[in-house]
Specification:
This protein is mainly alpha-helical. About 50% of the residues lie in helices and about 10% in strands. InterPro entries: UDP-glycosyltransferase, UDP_glucos_trans.
């Protein structure tokens, strides 16, 4: 799981801990100890270098499965809360151990699968490879690339706020320190904007950036070394910046970001228009959604141009519609951010269902069948197939009956009119014959 997706999960975990549940995070890196909001959540760490980059979905399967299995045994886990991204082992282990699983994602799964299905041959090979890994740990094959998620609770954390429980945001954030607030800066592309007095500067957090590579960028009048050594009066380089605190500051007017879900949520919550440079994952989709919502513009990573950046920054700052749309979405974010409590409530319901429908084990836990655990939650339309689910059979019968009744009525009316006509005609003939 990635750092940008963790806060959504951990916000729900924090609520569950407050309600008396024991929660353990299993993730690479020392996340909770370094986090302002989640220090109370215990974490079992593993070295992210164990995850091979090449085809990570396949090569990381066995290491993750074994780590999850060992942890589940040590803490006697009752439920698996799985970040959806590249996490087949989490769902598979829950299914294998007979424990309920809950997933969370910031993107609609159907959209993800639809995009991936364009590469059908490659995906088929990947599924076969994943099933080969499953066989090594005694897990039955599964042919859905999305994983064993067809009958589990899936929480959608969507920054438009219309999807299940999103947007999920912390109640408390780190404050903006004096040292951070009095400096500005971001990248060489903004030197032109600073010279034109369009902006004062941008804060540049380099937590995942190799700053040594930037020293080769000397296409401006100011050497990059001056910026990186913090000798530029308007530019501040820092390893960490309290993003939410900066976005909530009244002097912050614009946010340049890759468009990760957390950044989009926080920007929308604070009504800050965005200039987005999407790189991978859900970032391009997030950028398109915010562009359609009218609070952002995007850049192309394959065709970056200083003039294009300057022009789009000026548009975002000068055209009032971007700020107006950001404020419109801000209300949605603030109102719907409280729905994270619904996410915690739904997880409690899943645990309660497992307790009452599962088989009690020797250790006091419950073993369940994930294939049928939440069958009552599945809406009838998804179980009955397309025709019956869309009530097309009912509509067809109703249409046929309506057509038959209408036809019968028209036929009867025709007969009555014809009978009246014939009687009138015969009556006129009779009167005429009597006169003659």
């Amino acid at each position: 799981m990635t750092g940008s997706h963790l806060p959504s999960m951990l916000e729900i975990c924090k609520i569950l801990m407050d309600r008396g549940y024991n929660v353990t995070l299993v993730a690479p890196g020392n996340y909770t100890a370094q986090s302002f909001s989640y220090k109370s959540i215990p974490q079992i760490r593993f070295d992210p270098k164990e995850m091979v980059v090449h085809n990570i979905t396949v090569t990381s399967y066995l290491p993750l499965y074994n780590i999850y299995k060992k942890t589940a045994k040590e803490i006697n886990a009752d439920l698996f809360f799985c970040d959806h991204s590249l996490n087949h082992p989490c769902y598979d282990l829950a299914w294998k151990l007979g424990k309920p699983a809950v997933g969370i994602t910031s993107s609609l799964i159907g959209t993800i699968i639809a995009i991936q299905s364009c590469r059908q041959r490659k995906i088929t090979l990947t599924i076969n490879d994943i099933n080969a890994q499953r066989a090594k740990v005694g897990v039955d094959p599964h042919w859905n690339y999305g994983g064993r998620i067809s009958n589990i609770l899936m929480l959608l954390d969507n920054f438009f706020g219309f999807e299940e429980i999103g947007p999920i945001l912390p109640d408390i954030y780190p404050s903006l320190t004096h040292n951070t607030s009095k400096h500005c800066g971001y990248s060489k592309s903004f030197l032109e904007l600073i010279d034109q007095d369009v902006i004062d500067g941008v804060i540049w957090a380099t937590v995942k950036t190799d700053t040594s590579e930037l020293l080769s960028l000397n296409n401006s009048n100011i050497p990059m070394s001056v910026i990186l050594n913090k000798n530029h009066p308007h530019i501040h380089i820092t390893k960490y910046a309290p993003q939410f605190a900066i976005l909530s500051h009244e002097n912050t007017k614009l946010f340049l970001s890759h468009g990760g879900v957390s950044s989009c949520l926080e920007s929308m919550y604070n009504a800050r228009p965005m200039l987005i440079l999407p790189i991978m994952g859900d970032q391009p989709g997030n950028a398109e959604k915010l562009k359609m919502a009218g609070m952002a513009l995007s850049l192309s990573k394959t065709n970056l141009d200083v003039n294009d950046i300057v022009a789009k920054v000026k548009r975002l700052l000068d055209e009032k519609s971007f700020k107006k749309n950001a404020e419109r979405l801000q209300l949605l974010a603030k109102v719907n951010s409280k729905r994270k409590y619904r996410g915690a409530d739904l997880i409690k319901v899943v645990l309660n269902t497992a307790k009452h429908e599962g088989i009690e084990e020797e250790n006091g836990g419950f073993k369940i069948d994930n294939e049928i655990l939440l069958r009552d939650w599945i809406t009838p339309d998804s179980r009955m197939g397309y025709i019956r689910g869309k009530y097309l059979d009912v509509y067809s019968v109703a249409f046929t009956l309506s057509l038959a009744l209408s036809g019968g009525f028209v036929y009867a009316l025709f007969k009555i009119i014809n009978l009246i006509y014939r009687r009138n005609k015969n009556s006129q003939r009779s009167i005429k014959s009597k006169r003659e």
